[in-house]
Design brief:
The complex is a heterodimer of chains A (334) and B (402). Chain A is mainly α. Chain A is globular, with a radius of gyration of 23 Å. A two-stranded antiparallel sheet of chain A has the order 1-2. Helix content of chain A is 68%, strand content 1%. Chain A has a domain of 228 residues: MetI-like fold, CATH 1.10.3720. Chain A is built from 13 helices and two strands; from the N terminus they run H-H-H-H-E-E-H-H-H-H-H-H-H-H-H. Chain B starts with a helix and ends in a 7-residue tail after the last helix. The radius of gyration of chain B is 28 Å and the shape is globular. A two-stranded antiparallel ribbon of chain B has the order 1-2. Chain B has a two-stranded antiparallel ribbon with strand order 3-6. The longest helix of chain B is centred in the middle third of the chain and has 36 residues. With 402 residues, chain B is mainly alpha-helical. Chain B has two domains: 107 residues, no CATH class; 239 residues, MetI-like fold, CATH 1.10.3720.10. In chain B, strand 7 and strand 8 form a beta hairpin. The chains are: A mainly alpha (334), B mainly alpha (402). The interface between A and B is large, with 42 and 48 residues.
Chain lengths: 334, 402
């Protein structure tokens, strides 16, 4: 995965003679990762899921919003009239369950990944500014982070998303973004606003931990001799930050990001499950679970199908994160 | 220590004030509220009705004024200083807003544009209107009136009626979590890399990856719905007390359970308690294992062993006591959750606690209720931070506060 991009190769030493046989750092990291059996299994499971949701339009037998009046709660394996199979049956308004599940995966995973990328980036930017500049800026930013961390998160998350969801018609996305999301997730452009809004909320509430981590790394890297050397050679601040600080602080950031993905999967599912996230015609695992809950008296096992992917993905991301941590930074292991 | 406390209390007050202001501002932007509810049930209101309803919920005041009245119960009217009224004609609100309807994207959109002429509310009006509720402010324990859930009754009544259920659920599950999580963590740390450790670590991964709502639904599916179908002893799917007496099929024949009896309450609590406990145990056992491993590596543990102490004494007295220091923080930080309730778990099991109340309040746009719960949780969170800092110095004399 991203681990191989991380090897800062000692370029000058490559040409030196009489060096012991070089094992690239990427290889070492890969070996360490492969030793973590559960992480490898999880990664392959995630790869399969990713492949399935990427090929959603070709694999799913039905369109996710295609409904048939009267075909409610069909049991798994029922044939539709046109000879296509409802492998997992249909939901409360006659939509094919398997197809919805696949398309929902595309949306749920995209939301989690984009939210994680967004909050990591914001965390990196704010953390490195705060750590590098120090002084009043640092104090103010870190006070703000403490404030954000000290207020109860879930209740506020619920309020904000309920407000945004209710105003989602009034919010307008720039056309290119709306078109891109609509193309990526295969949903009508009118439904893209809520997705971007949810990602935005997650980023707004998710960057604090990363920024603290980044600040800590920058503070310790500032004291390193190579930073001093770079400064003595006359490097600009930007060069020091981008060339020296961020690459060296990447390992813990990647670990935190891969562990964070699991949290975002669950958060998105929870919000949608409570009806305050992504709304029904757009399928996500969370709102499918919510429909499954209200249909439990008719079909008790329905939540099992909608919830299992959430659990599997969250578990797999956790294991992969654990494996990445072992591989990248064995000292972090408790 | 005293300096530290003073500084911290001061900081706490600022954090609380900021978060109160932020939440209040957020909620004042939120759509819904009593007027839109009446409009949604097709009640035609004339301007006077609107003015009356707005006044009774203080919606006719500007947000900062309303916030200040909500927080400290002021302003009640103009100031009376040295025989002179000060600020009697200051405008603090608007009885009937002027609206304008425009066509936007083919839809008719009605917007508020300022105040109708002559409909300003001044500070003097605020004092002169006998129908206006005398607010005392949150500081004096007045959280205002509920707008939807318990219409026109004090929010505090609602909180009071829900709090026992949340406390009951949370105290039991927290106690169970400590009783299960700490031994699990300690034992798997002591037997690091054993099969037991491996199993506990893997299970704790499962436990913390399992979304509470999914686990809850699975339990309802199995223990409530299928067990009833299969005529096994089943559990009630939701709520805290049965509405009427119910019977449970067992192998030994039917078992009649009286609604509201202790058995009834206990049976209702089993599932939500299990969900919460499993989730917490997963996190806490991992935490205890981590800090225990850290401590077991220390020199003083080796010294204790070298002195020839029993392994049990070394673990319980030397290692565990030190390993539990950071754990204290974790437990103290779960206290706000105890009062705030587990929103998701309570919603899944329809448990009539504070979390469920909060969710209902949001869903039905009963913002005074939501605001009260937010403030209680925020206050407890901030208090928990302080208490955990102080506790740290108590359990670990090496730490000095300054």
């Amino acid at each position: 995965m991203t681990t191989t991009a991380l090897s800062p190769r000692p370029v000058d030493l490559l040409n030196a003679e009489a060096m012991p046989e070089e094992v690239s750092q990427g290889k070492v990291i890969l070996q360490r990762f492969l030793r973590h059996k559960l992480a490898v299994i999880s990664l392959s499971v995630l790869a399969v899921i990713a492949l399935v949701v990427l090929l959603a339009p070709y694999l799913a037998p039905f369109k996710p919003t295609e409904l048939k009046v009267g075909d409610y709660f069909m049991p798994p394996g029922t044939m539709a009239e046109d000879g296509r199979m409802h492998y997992l049956g249909t939901d409360n308004i006659g939509r094919d369950y398997l197809s919805r599940l696949i398309f929902a995966g595309r949306i749920s995973l995209t939301v989690a990944i984009l939210a994680q990328i967004g909050s990591s980036l914001l965390g990196i930017v704010i953390g490195s500014i705060s750590g590098y500049i120090g002084g009043v800026v640092d104090t103010l930013l870190m006070r703000f982070v403490e404030f954000m961390l000290s207020i109860p998160q879930l209740p506020l998350l619920l309020i904000i998303s309920s407000i945004i969801i209710q105003y989602r018609e009034a919010l307008a996305l720039p056309a290119p973004i709306a078109n891109f999301i609509s193309w990526l997730l295969i949903i009508p452009t009118t439904e893209t606003t809520q997705i971007v809004a949810i990602i935005g909320i997650f980023v707004a509430f998710g960057w604090m931990g990363d920024s603290r981590l980044m600040r800590g790394m920058v503070l310790s890297l500032k004291e390193q001799t190579y930073t001093e050397a770079a400064r003595a050679l006359g490097s600009s601040h930007w060069r020091i930050i981008f060339q020296h600080m961020i690459p060296n602080a990447m390992a813990p950031m990647i670990v935190s990001a891969s562990l964070g993905l699991s949290g975002f999967i669950i958060s998105e599912a929870a919000l949608s499950f409570l009806g305050l996230g992504i709304q029904d015609p757009t399928p996500t695992w969370g709102n499918m679970l919510s429909i499954a809950q209200s249909s439990m008296l008719q079909i008790p096992w329905l939540p099992l199908i909608a919830g299992t992917p959430i659990f599997i993905c969250s578990l797999a991301f956790n294991f992969v994160g654990d494996g990445v941590r072992d591989a990248l930074d064995p000292r972090l292991k408790m | 220590m005293v300096n530290f406390l003073i500084r911290r209390v001061f900081e706490m007050a600022i954090v609380l004030l900021l978060s109160a202001a932020a939440s209040y501002a957020l909620l004042s932007f939120a759509p819904g509220g009593p007027l839109s509810f009446l409009a949604s049930v097709q009640i035609r209101l004339n301007a006077e009705d609107i003015a009356r309803i707005r006044a009774s919920y203080e919606l006719d005041l500007f947000v900062p004024v309303r916030f200040s009245r909500w927080l400290i119960g002021q302003p009640q009217g103009p100031l009376y200083i040295a025989g002179q009224l000060i600020g009697a004609d200051w405008v603090v609100g608007c009885r009937i807003p002027a609206t304008e309807s425009v066509i936007e994207n083919g839809k008719v959109v009605t917007r508020e544009v300022g105040c109708r002429p002559g409909q300003d509310v001044t500070l003097l009006d605020l004092a002169a209107d006998p129908t206006r509720r005398q607010v005392r402010g949150v500081f004096m324990g007045d959280f205002g009136l509920s707008q939807q859930i318990l219409r026109d009754r004090p929010v505090w009544l609602l909180v009071e009626s829900r709090l026992p259920y949340t406390l009951q659920l949370m105290l039991v599950s927290t106690t169970l979590s400590i009783l299960i999580g700490v031994p699990l963590g300690v034992y798997s740390a002591v037997k690091q890399y054993s099969i037991f450790d491996y199993i506990v670590t893997t299970l704790s991964f499962f436990g913390s990856s399992m979304p509470t709502f999914f686990f809850g639904l699975l339990m309802i599916m199995l223990f409530a719905l299928y067990f009833e179908q299969w005529n096994l002893p089943h559990l009630p799917p939701g709520n805290a007390i049965a509405v009427r007496d119910w019977t449970m099929g067992t192998f030994l024949g039917d078992w009649r359970i009286e609604a509201g009896s202790l058995t009834d309450r206990a049976l209702h609590m089993v599932m939500p308690m299990t969900v919460l406990t499993l989730f917490t145990v997963a996190g806490w056992s991992r935490f205890v294992r981590g800090s225990m491993l850290e401590v077991l590596r220390q020199d003083y543990v080796r010294t204790a062993r070298a002195k020839g102490l029993w392994e049990r004494v070394v673990i319980a007295k030397h290692a565990l006591r030190n390993a539990l220091i950071p754990f204290v923080t974790i437990v103290v930080f779960s206290i706000p959750g105890v009062f705030g309730g587990a929103i998701i778990t309570e919603t899944v099991f329809n448990w009539p606690g504070m979390g469920r109340l909060y969710f209902d309040a949001l869903g039905r746009s009963d913002y005074p209720v939501a605001m009260a719960l937010l403030m209680i949780t925020a206050f407890l969170t901030v208090m928990a931070t302080l208490v955990s800092d102080v506790l740290y110095t108590v359990v670990d004399p090496r730490i000095r506060l300054n």
